[in-house]
Design goal:
Blueprint lengths: L6 E9 L7 H9 L14 E10 L3 E17 L5 E19 L2 E16 L2 E21 L4 E8 L2 E4 L2 E4 L2 E8 L2
Antiparallel strand pairs: 1-2, 1-10, 2-3, 3-4, 4-5, 5-6, 6-7, 6-8, 7-10, 8-9
């Protein structure tokens, strides 16, 4: 088989949610800033992320980096306002077993984030490691495109805390 024909690229829609990334811990960090008492919720919504990798008939190995940025006005307890920008990032490696239209596998990721106001870092989320068993379907859309629909159960490790919850993802994949 030609190695180029094993290439797969795509774009995936996932939600930046506490079960997937450090949004919750970043929000806690922003809310307890003593220097200004600023309070601002971080971005908690959908994010598009590219996917690139290799896929054979029964195995798929991919990388999926994700990034979400959000800017808003934060308010302190005494009524002062400041512009705060939050950035959250995630990098995932995925190994899936394919059986016809069904897929099952594991997504392993690393994520972090931070917040800045006036050029000064005002919050930082600790690095989080996640392990997510995943299962779903891979539906062919013509000769060169596939649609994957997946259910995931990410287990996230941050410092000494463990967080888990059900999530999902939809991806449009292209292969030569």
């Amino acid at each position: 088989m030609d190695p180029v024909s094993l290439l797969v690229m795509g774009v995936e829609l996932q939600r930046f949610a506490p079960a997937d990334d450090p949004a919750a811990s970043l929000g806690d960090s922003l809310e307890i800033i003593e220097a200004g008492g600023l309070s601002l919720a971080p971005y908690d919504g959908p994010a598009l992320q590219p996917v690139v990798g290799w896929r054979s008939r029964h195995l798929s190995l991919t990388l999926a980096p994700g990034l979400a940025a959000h800017a808003g006005t934060a308010t302190s307890a005494d009524g002062r306002e400041a512009r705060v920008t939050t950035v959250q990032w995630r990098a995932e490696g995925r190994a899936w077993w394919l059986a016809g239209p069904l897929l099952a596998g594991l997504d392993v990721g690393l994520s972090g984030g931070g917040g800045r106001s006036g050029g000064v870092q005002v919050a930082e989320a600790p690095l989080a490691v996640s392990v997510a068993p995943t299962a779903g379907v891979l539906v062919g859309l013509g000769d060169a495109f596939d649609l994957s629909l997946r259910a995931r159960y990410p287990v996230r490790f941050v410092d000494t805390a463990v967080d888990h919850g059900l999530s999902g993802a939809v991806a449009l994949m292209w292969h030569p």
